[in-house]
UniProtKB/TrEMBL annotation:
Keywords: Signal
Name of the protein described by the UniProt record: HEAT repeat protein
Keyword Magnesium set for record: no
Parts forming coiled coils: none
Region (Disordered): 33-147, 499-533
Composition bias, Low complexity: 521-533
Organism: Crateriforma conspicua
Biased composition range(s): Basic and acidic residues: 499-519
Tree of life domain: Bacteria
Cleaved signal peptide residues: 1-28
Length: 533
């Protein structure tokens, strides 16, 4: 027997509790009949796929365009993308461009001329509680006067007002029929409902009108999204920037729709100023995710994409806290979906690389390791810059490993500058009672070998430290901290082999000056093998 069968009373509302609730509501001055009124049926939850939520299949809602793979963008290209955005473009809602068409542009123009004349009359009609509510919301739309609505809707206005009055009827069936009729009238009657909600003194009427407005807004929003997905409607906020960074396809458009649902501020900021984008980024990174976990920030791939697009602004310089929050986001599951997805890999890699090159050297090893693991080519450029900018051993060795990961053989001579850097990394491994560690010079020798096509064992190290995913696993290069004669001889042999590789590399003629039928240089000559401990 289940718990529900053992305790049937738990499945129903207690009559005593109902009586107490009705008594409390009566004392508060709220009619019981208006409270227990059945709520209108709620719309089905929106599907995660915008095309499904609009009642269309993805093939019908999305244009038949192939997935575009975006080539890496140079810094000046990012400047051009954001420079072409219009900072003066203000968005209150994605549906605003079509609202004026559905409501009547001519009536709006004439109503604006008479707004000043009706202002005093309008103030007298507003209920006291509505006045306070309006004044507390500075972003609420301006209510149209009745004269404006009469010019716009004609005789239909009285019919709609009658239905609004019926929402406060004592007859439940009358209230339900009025709600259904208003819902069927569609989005054009929104100005009438907004005025009714603000002016009515009946809590039941205001409650039902608020629900109707929310449902009409949701329906209209879905229709706008469907038109955008099909490529026949108005552009979404930020689309002028997004399509240059992500491409234009049905899949990309569906991602942009999800961005607007989840992080509208980030998407709108793409067409604003750098300060707009900075505020939107800080807000997104300091907002609990949908599951209210301890980790802040976006929780989906579209939201993370919008975050990276806003951060791609060349004039945006992230603070250290922003860098660490972004790294935390990229390490989570949505970061893997963005950088490993077939459709999102190309633009996701570009956006990650654009932010990567802005990071400071505070967390450079973590950034380089994660970018190497995710195969972001910009990590190679950052590694080259790291060798010039920092003197921290951990950052230097991770930069060298990254150079091997991306086959940056053009940096061999640069790495040779660290062959005499004998600082320890502080790994402090213990094996067979001996304390082991790695020197910067050890990693430099392994890096030279890797860049020239040799493994670490080829030049004399005891273990193979070449690891394709991150370049080098320098934890495998450990040698005794207290050097005995055998360890000293091992390092001398490794250094001699590395010097020979560098000499061959320097003596190698420039391939651009060689005839096409010239034999390639022989790089397979054997090297001295040191006796391994």
């Amino acid at each position: 027997m289940t718990k529900r069968e053992m305790h049937p009373r738990r499945t129903a509302t207690s009559p005593i509790m109902t009586a107490f609730a009705l008594a409390a509501l009566t004392m508060a001055g709220i009619p019981g009949s208006s409270v227990v009124a059945q709520q209108p049926p709620t719309p089905p939850p929106a599907s995660s796929n915008p095309a499904e939520s609009s009642g269309q299949t993805e093939a019908e809602a999305s244009p038949q365009k192939p997935i575009a793979h975006i080539a890496p963008l140079s810094p000046d290209r990012y400047e051009q993308v954001f420079a072409e955005a219009d900072p003066e473009r203000q968005w209150r809602s994605v549906t605003e461009p079509l609202r004026s068409q559905s409501a009547g542009d001519d009536a709006d123009t004439e109503g604006a001329q008479t707004a000043g004349e009706d202002a005093s009359t309008e103030t007298q009609d507003v209920a006291p509680e509505a006045t306070g509510r309006e004044s507390s919301d500075a972003t609420s739309p301006r209510l149209k006067s009745r004269q404006e609505l009469a010019e716009q809707f004609g005789p239909t206005l009285e019919t709609i007002e009658t239905l609004v009055d019926q929402l406060g009827s004592s007859d439940f069936a009358v209230r339900e029929r009025a709600s259904a009729s208003l819902l069927e009238s569609g989005y054009p009657i929104v100005p009438i409902l907004q005025r009714g909600e603000a002016l009515s003194g009946d809590p039941e009427v205001r409650l039902r009108l608020g629900r109707l407005l929310a449902r009409l807004e949701d329906q209209y929003q879905r229709s706008i999204e469907s038109a955008f997905l099909a490529g026949t409607g108005n552009d979404m906020p930020g689309w002028s920037v997004a399509k240059k960074l992500m491409g234009d396809s049905g899949w990309v458009r569906s991602e942009v729709v999800m961005m607007y649902r989840e992080v509208p501020d980030l998407l709108q900021s793409l067409e604003g100023t750098t300060d707009n984008r900075r505020r939107a980024i800080q807000k997104a990174l300091n907002t609990p995710n949908a599951n209210f976990r301890s980790v802040m920030g976006p929780d989906t791939r579209p939201a993370l994409t919008a975050l990276l697009m806003a951060a791609a602004d060349p004039n945006f310089a992230p603070e250290l806290a922003t860098e660490r929050a972004m790294l935390n986001q990229l390490r989570r599951s949505q970061g893997g979906l963005l950088l490993n997805g077939n459709a999102s890999r190309s633009y996701g890699t570009n956006l990650f690389g654009a932010f990567l090159l802005k990071t400071s050297d505070s967390d450079r090893p973590e950034w380089l390791f994660h970018a190497s693991d995710r195969n972001v080519p910009a990590a190679g450029d950052l590694a080259v810059r790291t060798l010039d900018e920092t003197d921290q051993p951990q950052s230097l060795v991770q930069a060298m490993a990254t150079l091997v990961r991306f086959d940056r053989a053009d940096q061999v001579l640069k790495v040779t500058e660290f062959l005499d850097d004998h600082r320890m990394l502080g790994l402090n491994q213990i094996r067979d009672g001996s304390l082991l560690d790695v020197r910067v010079s050890d990693v430099a020798m392994a890096t030279v070998a890797g860049l020239l096509g040799r493994s670490t064992m080829d030049i004399g190290f005891p273990e193979d430290a070449n690891y394709r995913q991150v370049g080098l696993d320098y934890n495998r290069l450990v040698l005794p901290v207290i050097e005995d004669e055998k360890t000293k001889q091992l390092r001398r042999n490794i250094r001699r082999n590395v010097d020979e590789l560098v000499r061959r590399h320097r003596d190698q003629p420039d391939q651009t000056d060689q005839p096409k039928d010239a034999d390639p240089p022989d790089s397979s000559a054997p090297l001295d093998q040191a006796e391994r401990p």
